[in-house]
Specification:
alpha/beta, 12 strands, about 40% helix, about 30% strand
């Protein structure tokens, strides 16, 4: 299982939100690239980056910061948040980002998703942000009418290789990850599933690894010290 320590960006700073609430934001660093270097020093090989302003408003307001993280760390970088056009996909991937994550656009614009997969294949991942069984969109601010199962089925049929699955109600609250959700989805679908939201202990990581999940994202637990990243990386290798 691959561990993806996470960097969430607002205004070029590394931040964390509580349950996706932009009014409940903690700033952890003014220099996110330094955090990425610590990930590398802990043995991590991959980074999960979210442009929270992009997620809310569209566009690539933190592109320079993303590229600085990539350049300074040299790690595999996947980026999500506000990627709603081929122009933005092209901009990220041509600049050296390894994989982009489509969220809102995967729900609202299937033609765009198909086009992106046709052009870039496995460099396109999809984010499934789930609130009470339904997919949420626009930086988690709106709940769609699409159920998680409907969405997973649709994505698999379209040829999506990697899906990042977040239980919003577990995100940033340090209450443990939704193991039942990931167990169910990993048995039901053949895509590479990355668990996100609430991964807050070594127990969570080992339980997800036992399920055979492709990846797990470590967010707040890294920043608070609840998970020792070096120890976690060693445990899953």
């Amino acid at each position: 299982m691959i561990l993806f320590p996470a960097i969430d960006l607002v205004g070029g700073k590394a931040v964390r939100l509580y349950k996706g609430d932009y009014d409940k934001m903690t700033v952890y660093s003014n220099h996110p690239e330094e955090i990425a270097l610590d990930f590398k020093n802990c043995g991590a090989t991959h980074i999960h980056i979210v442009d929270l302003e992009g997620a809310r408003d569209g566009g690539t307001p933190n592109l320079d910061t993303v590229l600085k993280i990539k350049k300074e760390s040299g790690l595999f970088c996947e980026v999500g948040g506000g990627i709603r056009s081929m122009e933005v996909v092209d901009r990220y991937l041509s600049a050296g980002v390894d994989r982009v994550i489509l969220g809102t656009a995967a729900i609202s614009d299937e033609a765009f998703l198909k086009k992106a997969i046709e052009k870039y294949g496995e460099k396109i991942a999809v984010g499934a942000d789930i609130r009470e069984g339904f997919i949420a969109v626009k930086g988690w601010l709106e709940r769609s009418s699409v159920t998680a199962d409907e969405f997973f089925e649709r994505m698999q049929n379209l040829g999506v290789k990697t899906i990042i699955c977040t239980d919003i109600n577990r995100d940033g609250v340090m209450a443990g990850t939704n193991r039942d959700l990931y167990r169910t989805m990993s048995r039901r679908y053949s895509m590479d599933i990355t668990a996100s939201g609430g991964v807050s202990s070594m127990d969570d990581i080992l339980a997800l690894q036992k399920m055979g999940l492709y990846g797990a994202i470590i967010g707040k637990a890294y920043y608070t010290g609840a998970i020792d990243l070096k120890q976690a990386v060693e445990a899953v290798q």
